[in-house]
Design brief:
Layout lengths: L1 H17 L10 E4 L1 H15 L7 E7 L5 E4 L3 E7 L9 E8 L2 E21 L14 E7 L17 E2 L14 E2 L9 E8 L2 E9 L8 E6 L5 E8 L2 E5 L1
Parallel strand pairs: 10-14
Antiparallel strand pairs: 1-3, 2-6, 4-5, 5-6, 6-7, 8-9, 10-11, 11-12, 12-13, 13-14
Protein backbone atom coordinates (compact mmCIF):
# COMPACT_ATOMS: atom_id res chain seq x y z
CA UNK A 1 0.00 0.00 0.00
CA UNK A 2 2.82 2.37 0.93
CA UNK A 3 4.52 1.60 -2.38
CA UNK A 4 1.37 2.52 -4.35
CA UNK A 5 0.91 5.82 -2.49
CA UNK A 6 4.56 6.73 -3.04
CA UNK A 7 4.27 5.88 -6.75
CA UNK A 8 1.11 8.00 -7.14
CA UNK A 9 2.83 10.95 -5.44
CA UNK A 10 5.82 10.69 -7.76
CA UNK A 11 3.57 10.59 -10.83
CA UNK A 12 1.65 13.69 -9.61
CA UNK A 13 4.89 15.59 -9.02
CA UNK A 14 6.21 14.58 -12.42
CA UNK A 15 3.03 15.74 -14.17
CA UNK A 16 3.11 19.03 -12.27
CA UNK A 17 6.63 19.64 -13.51
CA UNK A 18 5.77 18.82 -17.14
CA UNK A 19 2.47 20.73 -17.45
CA UNK A 20 2.72 24.48 -18.25
CA UNK A 21 2.01 26.84 -15.39
CA UNK A 22 -1.06 29.08 -15.83
CA UNK A 23 -0.29 32.72 -14.96
CA UNK A 24 -3.24 35.06 -14.43
CA UNK A 25 -3.44 37.52 -17.34
CA UNK A 26 -2.79 41.11 -16.43
CA UNK A 27 -5.50 43.64 -17.33
CA UNK A 28 -4.70 45.60 -20.48
CA UNK A 29 -3.76 49.23 -19.89
CA UNK A 30 -4.85 51.78 -22.49
CA UNK A 31 -3.60 55.36 -22.64
CA UNK A 32 -6.20 57.94 -23.65
CA UNK A 33 -5.31 61.39 -24.98
CA UNK A 34 -6.42 64.03 -27.48
CA UNK A 35 -5.77 61.78 -30.49
CA UNK A 36 -7.92 58.95 -29.12
CA UNK A 37 -10.78 61.30 -28.16
CA UNK A 38 -10.69 62.94 -31.60
CA UNK A 39 -10.89 59.51 -33.23
CA UNK A 40 -13.86 58.54 -31.06
CA UNK A 41 -15.71 61.79 -31.86
CA UNK A 42 -14.90 61.55 -35.58
CA UNK A 43 -16.36 58.03 -35.68
CA UNK A 44 -19.46 59.30 -33.90
CA UNK A 45 -19.83 62.11 -36.46
CA UNK A 46 -19.58 59.63 -39.34
CA UNK A 47 -22.40 57.58 -37.84
CA UNK A 48 -24.55 60.71 -37.44
CA UNK A 49 -23.99 61.70 -41.07
CA UNK A 50 -27.07 59.78 -42.23
CA UNK A 51 -29.26 62.17 -40.20
CA UNK A 52 -28.00 65.01 -42.39
CA UNK A 53 -27.76 63.57 -45.92
CA UNK A 54 -27.20 66.98 -47.53
CA UNK A 55 -24.55 68.02 -45.03
CA UNK A 56 -20.86 67.25 -44.66
CA UNK A 57 -20.05 67.07 -40.94
CA UNK A 58 -16.51 67.90 -39.83
CA UNK A 59 -14.76 68.05 -36.47
CA UNK A 60 -12.54 71.13 -36.58
CA UNK A 61 -11.23 71.20 -33.03
CA UNK A 62 -11.79 69.78 -29.56
CA UNK A 63 -10.84 70.85 -26.07
CA UNK A 64 -7.47 69.40 -25.04
CA UNK A 65 -7.42 66.94 -22.13
CA UNK A 66 -4.64 65.64 -19.84
CA UNK A 67 -3.74 62.07 -20.90
CA UNK A 68 -4.96 59.29 -18.62
CA UNK A 69 -4.78 55.50 -18.44
CA UNK A 70 -7.55 52.96 -17.99
CA UNK A 71 -7.46 49.20 -17.47
CA UNK A 72 -9.82 46.71 -19.04
CA UNK A 73 -10.37 44.64 -22.15
CA UNK A 74 -13.81 46.01 -23.04
CA UNK A 75 -13.88 49.78 -23.42
CA UNK A 76 -17.07 51.52 -24.53
CA UNK A 77 -17.77 55.21 -25.14
CA UNK A 78 -21.12 56.95 -24.66
CA UNK A 79 -21.44 60.34 -26.41
CA UNK A 80 -24.19 62.93 -25.87
CA UNK A 81 -24.24 66.29 -27.72
CA UNK A 82 -25.35 69.40 -25.84
CA UNK A 83 -28.20 70.02 -28.31
CA UNK A 84 -30.72 67.59 -29.84
CA UNK A 85 -29.87 69.27 -33.17
CA UNK A 86 -26.32 68.01 -33.54
CA UNK A 87 -24.98 70.90 -35.60
CA UNK A 88 -26.00 73.37 -32.86
CA UNK A 89 -23.91 71.53 -30.26
CA UNK A 90 -20.87 73.26 -28.81
CA UNK A 91 -20.14 70.70 -26.10
CA UNK A 92 -20.19 66.91 -25.91
CA UNK A 93 -20.45 64.72 -22.82
CA UNK A 94 -18.25 61.63 -23.06
CA UNK A 95 -18.53 58.68 -20.70
CA UNK A 96 -15.93 55.90 -20.90
CA UNK A 97 -16.82 52.50 -19.47
CA UNK A 98 -14.33 49.72 -18.82
CA UNK A 99 -15.87 46.26 -18.43
CA UNK A 100 -19.19 47.99 -17.81
CA UNK A 101 -17.93 50.37 -15.10
CA UNK A 102 -17.61 54.13 -15.56
CA UNK A 103 -13.94 55.11 -15.45
CA UNK A 104 -14.17 58.59 -16.99
CA UNK A 105 -16.92 61.19 -17.35
CA UNK A 106 -16.04 64.47 -19.06
CA UNK A 107 -17.63 67.33 -20.99
CA UNK A 108 -15.57 68.88 -23.79
CA UNK A 109 -15.95 72.00 -25.89
CA UNK A 110 -16.12 71.09 -29.58
CA UNK A 111 -15.87 73.15 -32.77
CA UNK A 112 -18.03 71.60 -35.51
CA UNK A 113 -18.38 72.43 -39.18
CA UNK A 114 -21.51 71.44 -41.11
CA UNK A 115 -21.20 72.25 -44.81
CA UNK A 116 -24.30 72.20 -47.03
CA UNK A 117 -25.82 74.05 -50.02
CA UNK A 118 -27.81 77.04 -48.73
CA UNK A 119 -30.21 79.33 -50.64
CA UNK A 120 -29.03 82.96 -50.75
CA UNK A 121 -30.40 86.09 -52.42
CA UNK A 122 -29.05 86.65 -55.93
CA UNK A 123 -29.83 90.39 -55.65
CA UNK A 124 -31.19 92.98 -53.23
CA UNK A 125 -34.86 92.11 -52.74
CA UNK A 126 -37.55 94.35 -51.18
CA UNK A 127 -40.05 93.42 -48.51
CA UNK A 128 -43.12 91.77 -50.05
CA UNK A 129 -41.27 90.40 -53.10
CA UNK A 130 -42.58 87.09 -54.46
CA UNK A 131 -39.58 84.86 -55.08
CA UNK A 132 -38.80 83.49 -58.52
CA UNK A 133 -35.91 81.17 -59.59
CA UNK A 134 -33.87 84.21 -60.69
CA UNK A 135 -33.99 85.69 -57.18
CA UNK A 136 -31.89 83.01 -55.52
CA UNK A 137 -28.84 80.82 -55.89
CA UNK A 138 -27.25 77.98 -53.92
CA UNK A 139 -23.84 78.23 -52.22
CA UNK A 140 -22.06 75.96 -49.73
CA UNK A 141 -22.05 77.43 -46.22
CA UNK A 142 -21.41 76.33 -42.64
CA UNK A 143 -24.80 75.58 -41.09
CA UNK A 144 -23.39 75.85 -37.56
CA UNK A 145 -23.18 79.63 -38.07
CA UNK A 146 -26.75 80.00 -39.42
CA UNK A 147 -30.19 79.90 -37.85
CA UNK A 148 -32.82 77.86 -39.70
CA UNK A 149 -31.56 78.39 -43.28
CA UNK A 150 -33.33 77.11 -46.40
CA UNK A 151 -31.65 74.14 -48.08
CA UNK A 152 -34.18 73.49 -50.84
CA UNK A 153 -34.49 76.19 -53.52
CA UNK A 154 -37.76 74.76 -54.85
CA UNK A 155 -39.47 75.39 -51.51
CA UNK A 156 -38.79 79.11 -51.87
CA UNK A 157 -40.32 79.66 -55.30
CA UNK A 158 -43.57 81.60 -54.92
CA UNK A 159 -42.91 82.53 -51.27
CA UNK A 160 -43.26 86.12 -50.08
CA UNK A 161 -40.54 88.05 -48.23
CA UNK A 162 -41.64 89.38 -44.86
CA UNK A 163 -38.66 91.77 -44.83
CA UNK A 164 -36.07 93.04 -47.28
CA UNK A 165 -32.92 90.99 -47.89
CA UNK A 166 -29.50 91.99 -49.23
CA UNK A 167 -27.67 90.23 -52.05
CA UNK A 168 -25.67 87.24 -50.77
CA UNK A 169 -27.63 86.91 -47.52
CA UNK A 170 -29.11 83.46 -46.77
CA UNK A 171 -32.89 83.10 -46.72
CA UNK A 172 -34.33 82.11 -43.34
CA UNK A 173 -37.72 80.49 -42.85
CA UNK A 174 -38.86 83.12 -40.34
CA UNK A 175 -38.44 85.76 -43.06
CA UNK A 176 -40.83 84.04 -45.49
CA UNK A 177 -44.54 83.54 -45.72
CA UNK A 178 -47.02 82.02 -48.15
CA UNK A 179 -48.59 84.84 -50.19
CA UNK A 180 -52.39 85.04 -50.06
CA UNK A 181 -54.33 83.72 -53.04
CA UNK A 182 -56.97 86.30 -52.29
CA UNK A 183 -56.48 89.81 -50.91
CA UNK A 184 -58.93 92.01 -49.07
CA UNK A 185 -61.01 93.92 -51.64
CA UNK A 186 -60.64 91.28 -54.38
CA UNK A 187 -63.73 90.27 -56.33
CA UNK A 188 -64.25 86.52 -56.00
CA UNK A 189 -66.57 83.82 -57.24
CA UNK A 190 -68.50 82.12 -54.45
CA UNK A 191 -69.41 78.50 -55.13
CA UNK A 192 -72.03 76.92 -52.88
CA UNK A 193 -72.70 73.21 -53.21
CA UNK A 194 -75.04 70.67 -51.65
CA UNK A 195 -74.82 67.24 -53.22
CA UNK A 196 -75.45 67.65 -56.94
CA UNK A 197 -76.76 71.22 -56.51
CA UNK A 198 -74.20 73.98 -57.22
CA UNK A 199 -74.85 77.73 -57.06
CA UNK A 200 -72.41 80.54 -57.82
CA UNK A 201 -72.44 84.21 -56.86
CA UNK A 202 -70.14 87.22 -56.88
CA UNK A 203 -68.51 88.32 -53.66
CA UNK A 204 -66.06 90.82 -52.18
CA UNK A 205 -63.25 89.48 -49.99
CA UNK A 206 -63.16 91.14 -46.57
CA UNK A 207 -59.70 89.81 -45.65
CA UNK A 208 -56.63 88.10 -47.07
CA UNK A 209 -56.55 84.35 -47.41
CA UNK A 210 -54.12 81.61 -48.50
CA UNK A 211 -55.27 78.28 -49.89
CA UNK A 212 -57.64 76.45 -47.51
CA UNK A 213 -57.95 79.51 -45.25
CA UNK A 214 -61.44 80.47 -44.12
CA UNK A 215 -62.19 84.16 -44.76
CA UNK A 216 -65.14 86.54 -44.60
CA UNK A 217 -66.73 87.34 -47.96
CA UNK A 218 -69.60 89.77 -48.65
CA UNK A 219 -72.20 88.44 -51.09
CA UNK A 220 -72.72 91.24 -53.63
CA UNK A 221 -76.38 90.32 -54.21
CA UNK A 222 -77.52 89.94 -50.59
CA UNK A 223 -74.90 92.24 -49.00
CA UNK A 224 -74.47 89.57 -46.31
CA UNK A 225 -71.09 88.38 -45.03
CA UNK A 226 -70.46 84.66 -45.08
CA UNK A 227 -67.46 82.50 -44.22
CA UNK A 228 -65.86 80.81 -47.22
CA UNK A 229 -62.89 78.55 -47.84
CA UNK A 230 -60.24 79.77 -50.29
CA UNK A 231 -59.80 77.23 -53.09
CA UNK A 232 -57.93 79.18 -55.80
CA UNK A 233 -57.13 82.75 -56.87
CA UNK A 234 -60.43 84.67 -56.96
CA UNK A 235 -62.39 81.55 -55.94
CA UNK A 236 -63.97 80.56 -52.64
CA UNK A 237 -66.33 77.82 -51.58
CA UNK A 238 -69.10 77.50 -49.02
CA UNK A 239 -71.23 74.53 -48.07
CA UNK A 240 -75.02 74.91 -48.04
Amino acid sequence: MFFLQRTSLLIFLLLAMLLPHTVPAEAQTVKIGDAEVRKVLSTYMQKQQRRYPQTELRLRDIQSIPPFEVEGDRLRWEITPSSPRLIDSRRFNLILRSDGKVVKNMTLSVDLEALAPVAIAADDLPRGAILSPEDLTMVTMDLSTLRNPCLDAQELIGMKLRRAIRMGAPFVRSGLETPPLIKRGDMVTITASNGTLTVTARGLAQENGAEDDTIRVKNISSQKEIFCRVTAPSAVEVEL
